[in-house]
Amino acid sequence: MTEAVFRPPRRKKRVYESYDSPFPICGSDFKICRAEVINNNVIVKNPEDIEQLYSKGFFGKGILSRSQPAYNISDPVLVAKWKDVRLNMPIISSKKYHCHVEWAKSLMREQGLDDCTINATILNYTEPLNLNQEAEQNSEPQVEETTEDKPNFLVTSAETNGKKVACSEGESCYDPLCKYGSNDSDIAGFQAVAKTHSANSYPFSSQDDFMKQESHSVISKEYNHEYVLVEEEESDLCLEEETSEKLNLMKSKKLVCRKNPFRIFEYLQLSLEEAFFLVYALGCLSVYYNEVPLSVLKLWTFFSDVQPNFRTLYMAYHHFRAKGWVPKIGLKYASDLLLYRKGPPFYHASYSVIAELVVDDDFEGSSQRPFNWKSLCGLNRTTANVSKELMFCYLIKPSNMTEKEMASPECLKRIKVQELILNRWVSSRERSEQEEL
Fold this sequence. Notes:
By secondary structure, the protein is an alpha+beta fold. It contains eleven helices and 17 strands.
């Protein structure tokens, strides 16, 4: 039996995030975040809580993002295309905007509204802001100076004989939902429009498979709205220079300011182990179920019922977090946990962890994942192919520990941990190393 050699973690080539000091936080700025249990998932909705939990320890993942909760409705291609129009508003395509309109219609049908009412509401809600067009010749779109009464900005462009035509639009804004109780101050000027485009309350919200939220009608309540710039095509009849008899159909692009009828929210989803660690070990999270906060003991019991191997996984998670690692769920690599140094944005995972709860030092007890030589070799080869090491984390509980003691998180105080790294033995490599010695 050979001794395992520690390998330094592999740093990622491109890092786009800054590293903040992780929890625990000391001082007056300490804030207890709030999460909710929705369909056996722990969800954080408050944007401030999301930023704090992810930036200070990389807890959870965005439900609309790969990891970091940074979903943006804007199309990156369109943002790059209209980079000279410096407006603090999302830019989306017309096709995507029509998808949001259809989702909003579907949501109102679920509320029992008839098609006539739905079409009238959507038509009034999605009507573009009334802005007078005034064509000007410019080399590229740019933002003009604005006044209090008539905010002006360039939103259209077209190619005419190799030259780009820019059109300015400007007039006082009109809110098509003002008769439904919307606040007129939200659309008093374009600066107000840009300021309120990221408001948190909207008439329509996303409905994920695991989060069915209560819907609200746009007519019955007052809301701040998300304003977006929609790239649309307009057809103009232009006379060609060579012959005035022939008409050429030109297609120009323009940005139209509209209200987004269906807002997709970005939430932070915590694993059960992460949520319990934040509640039990750090005390910086409060988990609610049906608007009622759950105690530590209730959470331990509830999570154990939802996930049969929760106790084993949490013991391993708590152990590695206490050592300074950032554990993540290792389902994609057929393991229980993945261990990162500092966090996923900075380093690749160093270890794939299999957690097992055993009795005494004899490692007796039923295995959560029984292995044979074939499955073990396959898992080891998979782990090696992604430049990680396979680690077995044995959580050893005393033989006299009763099930009643295991029903409380206080049992962690009596648990011992032993780590075992499994390496593939290659005869030719081992023989060459021995000959060099």
